[in-house]
From TrEMBL:
SUPFAM superfamilies: PLP-dependent transferases
Transmembrane residue ranges: none
Name of the molecule in the record: Aminotransferase class I/II-fold pyridoxal phosphate-dependent enzyme
Names of the cofactor(s): pyridoxal 5'-phosphate
Species, as recorded: Belliella alkalica
InterPro entries in the cross-refs: Cys/Met-Metab_PyrdxlP-dep_enz, Cys_met_metab_PP, PyrdxlP-dep_Trfase, PyrdxlP-dep_Trfase_major, PyrdxlP-dep_Trfase_small
Keywords, comma-separated and alphabetical: Aminotransferase, Pyridoxal phosphate, Transferase
Family: Belongs to the trans-sulfuration enzymes family.
Pfam families for this protein: Cys_Met_Meta_PP
GO molecular-function terms, A-Z: transaminase activity
Alphabetical list of Gene3D superfamilies matching this protein: Aspartate Aminotransferase, domain 1, Type I PLP-dependent aspartate aminotransferase-like (Major domain)
Length: 366
């Protein structure tokens, strides 16, 4: 099956004798004991099984685990590690997961943050206790590109697990497992959900090995699982993911070029621009450049806030990946200790008509 067909058909696992055309929502928390049956909804339920099936197939993995948020998915990986394990993580990492490592896991896990745009930095950071390399590409919010294949080769030599946060690229444009990663992570709150109305996270494993069994145990015993309704919603959204992503990437590419040529813009971060540091690696490992971009407004935070306040179709809000365009001055969301430039604006380019988006930006940037 091709990607578009998987997205539509792999999320349906009907057991109902009426044979509905789409997976019904099964709200039951418990199921009558019989052979091969689902037992209790924290362990598994028909909607989560259907969702995990489509997620695994989209990312070319053998197994998938769905969670109640992207952060819960990420935390499950960290919880599955032995105390004292060392992690190599990117210096531009989703701040919520970075904060988990520095806060919740302080004293339990040891972490070094490195600039992964150069794989040599990863190699240099690896030590005897390294059990996990965490990759995020394109990264949030600087759209840094890391070479997944090269990093996986470094990891393989030392038997280190590689997890790749694929939230920005989505399986429409990048399949880390095909490039050597062991596990793919998603905040399904973003593009997979696609309409800013579902919280969720997911992990997809290349194979069901010992480490995966530990993750599965954290999912089931920890219990940060999505509801049947959320699983249903997400499975429904995934059906249009391939076509939504084409639109997001087309719009983002054009807007990135527009911004690059604007006199009031200092710099644009979009991996599809030829001048982007990671352009050639992105071109090699992605089939599209995605719908996220960031740019620096000429001036300070006040100037950037003024641009945002003048926009009509870009809502000033955090999060990303929905059909509606969102924009934010990222440093304001990341808190006091952020390294993100104060004049950086992050854009989640939506699926409104491109002319309306360009007109809006034109007025705001005047
Ligand atoms: C949003 C996000 C997360 C966290 O996901 P939640 O669903 O908000 O918990 C992790 N990684 C990236 C890249 C994200 O954008």
């Amino acid at each position: 099956m091709k990607f578009e067909t998987i997205a539509i058909h792999a999320g349906t696992k009907i057991t109902d004798t009426h044979r509905p055309a789409v997976q019904p929502i099964t709200l039951a928390t418990t199921f009558e004991h019989h052979e091969d049956s689902v037992i209790y909804s924290r362990s598994s339920n028909p909607n989560r099984n259907a969702l995990e099936n489509v997620l695994a197939k989209l990312e070319h993995g053998e197994v998938a685990a769905a969670f109640s948020s992207g952060n819960a998915a990420g935390m499950s990986v960290f919880q599955a590690l032995e105390p004292g394990s060392h992690i190599v993580a990117p210096d531009d990492m989703y701040h919520g997961l970075r904060n988990q490592l520095l806060g919740i896991f302080a004293g339990i896990l040891d972490v070094d943050f490195v600039d992964m745009t150069n794989p040599q930095n990863v190699k240099n950071a690896v030590k005897k206790e390294t059990k996990l390399i965490w990759v995020e590409t394109p990264s949030n919010p600087l759209l840094k590109i890391s070479d997944i294949k090269s990093i996986c080769e470094i990891a393989k030599e030392k038997n280190i697990t590689v997890v790749c946060d694929n939230t920005f690229a989505t399986p429409a444009f990048q399949n880390p497992i095909l490039l050597g990663a062991d596990i793919v992570m998603h905040s399904t709150t973003k593009y997979l959900g696609g309409h800013s109305d579902i919280m969720g996270g997911a992990l997809v494993g290349k194979t069901q090995n010992e480490f995966w069994d530990k993750i599965r145990n954290v999912q089931i015993s920890g219990g940060a699982v999505p509801s049947p309704f959320d699983c249903y919603m997400l499975t429904r959204s995934i059906k249009t993911l391939p076509y939504r992503m084409k639109g997001h990437a087309e719009h983002a590419g054009i807007i990135a070029t527009y911004l690059e040529n604007h006199p009031n813009v200092e710099k644009v971060y979009y991996p599809g621009l030829k001048g982007h540091d990671g352009f050639s690696i992105a071109k090699g490992q992605m089939t599209g450049f995605g719908g996220m971009l960031s740019f620096l407004v000429k001036g300070d935070a006040v100037k950037a806030d003024r641009v945002i306040s003048r926009l009509q179709f870009f809502t000033n809000a955090t999060s990303l990946g929905g059909v509606e365009s969102l924009i934010e001055r990222r440093a304001a969301s990341e808190g006091a200790d952020t390294k993100t430039p104060q004049n950086l604006i992050r854009v989640s380019v939506g699926l409104e008509h491109l002319d309306d988006l360009l007109d809006d930006l034109n007025v705001a940037l005047e």
